[in-house]
Amino acid sequence: MRKLVILGTGFAMATKCFNTCFFLELEDGSLFLTDAGGGNGILRQLEVTNFDYNKCHHMFVTHGHTDHVLGVVWIIRKVADLMNKGKFEGQFHIYCHDVVKDMLEKMSAMTLKKKDFARVGTDILLHEVTDGQRVDLPQFCMTAFDIMSTKAKQFGYELKFADGLKFTCLGDEPYNEHARQYAEKADWLLAEAFCQYKDRDVFKPYEKNHSTVKEASELAEELGVKNLVLYHTEDKHIATRKADYTAEAKEYYHGNIFVPDDLDVIEI
To answer: Tens digits of per-residue pLDDT, 230-244?
Structure first.
């Protein structure tokens, strides 16, 4: 059984929840991590979920904003430390575009201990992916794509499993038609929804290049998506977010709606 484990659901400046990141647990027990939040809080989130680093050999990083990339340095440090103690077998692969690759190499060089940094490039491998590039992994075929961000370069991805399931991560900005082939008819679509439409004048999502629940839900309906996961939200309505966002989404989308809290587990 495949599972989507949500590590964080909040936007960059969230304090009531962790930054948006997650991992997939696959049928064979292997783990696939996406982004890592903005600091070493990622280590706690993973610890709470009983994350087994030895089962995670592949990771994807969408972009270089602080709330997505800084935690990756902590992942690199953790994996390097495990390797140096003989507690991690094999290599650890990180997939990202050229800007993120350069950032991670430089931050790792400046912040890691020499023996940990020695693992980068040998046992911890940073793979640059380009728009439309396909990567065949043991559990699925991954295709990376440029989401055409107007802020910082950002990639999403489509995963295609042997049984035909299509899982698409759109990153944390509004949909661009460039991504249609990867998002249309997806079994699972992960999309940002910064706030409810009625609160747009309060949170000003469009100024931040984000969308509301309404727009994300209309998109999923148009694309014929079966299951919609909404995250990367404001954190002022955490207590009622699941119910409120779900209610708004149902007005525009007729598939299955998931508005997870941090550490929620969704069977896919």
So the answer is: 999 999 999 999 999
CB atoms within 10 A of CB 59: 24
- 26-70: pLDDT as tens digits: 999 999 999 999 999 999 999 999 999 999 999 999 999 999 999
Q: What is the mean pLDDT of residues 148-158?
A: 96
Burial class (CB in 10 A: 0-12, 13-18, 19+), 136: exposed
Query: Which string of b and e fits 227-250 if b means at least 16 CB within 10 Å?
Result: bbbbbbbbeebbeebbebbeebbe
Round to whole Å and give the CA distance between 268 and 163.
12
Find where tokens 């800007």 sit.
99
How much is the pLDDT for 225?
A: 98
Q: Does residue 31 contact residue 52 with C-beta atoms inside 8 Å?
A: yes
What ranges make up the beta strands (E) of 75-226? Answer: 92-96, 124-128, 134-136, 141-146, 155-160, 166-169, 188-192
The token pair at 250 is 């149902």
Q: Which domains does the chain have, with CATH numbers?
A: 1-128 (3.60.15.10), 131-260 (3.60.15.10)
